[in-house]
Each structure stands twice: as C-alpha cells, then as structure tokens.
Specification:
mainly alpha; 5 helices; about 0% strand
C-alpha cells in the first residue's frame, strides 16, 4: 500500500520534473532556434536514458514511484512530442516530421536500453 507521504513525494517530484523540463527545453531552444523541436527531443531522450538507468538498477518500489512516475513523468512529455509532430505535418515540414518521429522512437529506445544496461551494471 502506498501512503500519503509517498503520493505527496510523487507530486513534489513531478513538479520538479516539470520545472526541469521547462528549463532544459528553454535552454536548448534558445541555443538552437529552429522549427524543429530540439528541446523536446533532448528532454525525452535524456528522460528515456534516466528511466532506463532507474529500471536497470532495480530501484525500490518507493524510489521507482518518486523518480520514475514523479520526476520522469513530469520531465518527459509524450503529449508535447505528438503535438509538435502534428504541427510539423501541418506546415508541410515532412522531413522534420519524419526525423522527429523516427529519432524520438528509435534513439529513445536505444538510450533507454543503454540506461538499463548501465543501471544493471552499477546496481
């Protein structure tokens, strides 16, 4: 059973993750101004890697809730990725659309696997 303090911790970590996402996305977007959503891509790839490390390290149930569900849930953003992909399609930026979809999925799976094996190695 998950207690009230754990749920409060998940909410707090989720808020920290959302702030981290905003900061990382803003910093990357400011340095790489483009119609391509590089900030969201960087956030989702780093989040995939870190979640892979967490799972590979066989984190405790409580830590998985706090960091996996809380922080990483607030940090990564599937909804923004889909909206930005749809926007690229709307404006006819098909190469950018395909790059965003394929790089996000393929590299995302790759970095998640790399994180998993790193986490497993250090656990």
């Amino acid at each position: 059973m998950v207690g009230v303090l754990t749920w409060a911790g998940v909410a707090f970590c989720g808020a920290l993750g959302a702030v981290a996402r905003f900061r990382v996305d803003s910093a990357i977007s400011a340095r790489l101004p483009s119609d391509f959503p590089a900030g969201t891509l960087a956030v989702n790839l780093t989040g995939s890697f870190l979640l892979g490390v967490l799972v590979g390290a066989s984190a405790s149930h409580r830590l998985a809730l706090l960091l996996g569900v809380g922080f990483m849930g607030g940090y990564t953003t599937f909804s923004t990725w889909t909206v930005e992909s749809e926007r690229l399609g709307e404006v006819g930026a098909l190469v950018s659309l395909l790059a965003n979809l394929l790089v996000s999925m393929l590299v995302g799976l790759g970095v998640a696997a790399a994180g998993f094996y790193l986490g497993r190695a250090v656990a």
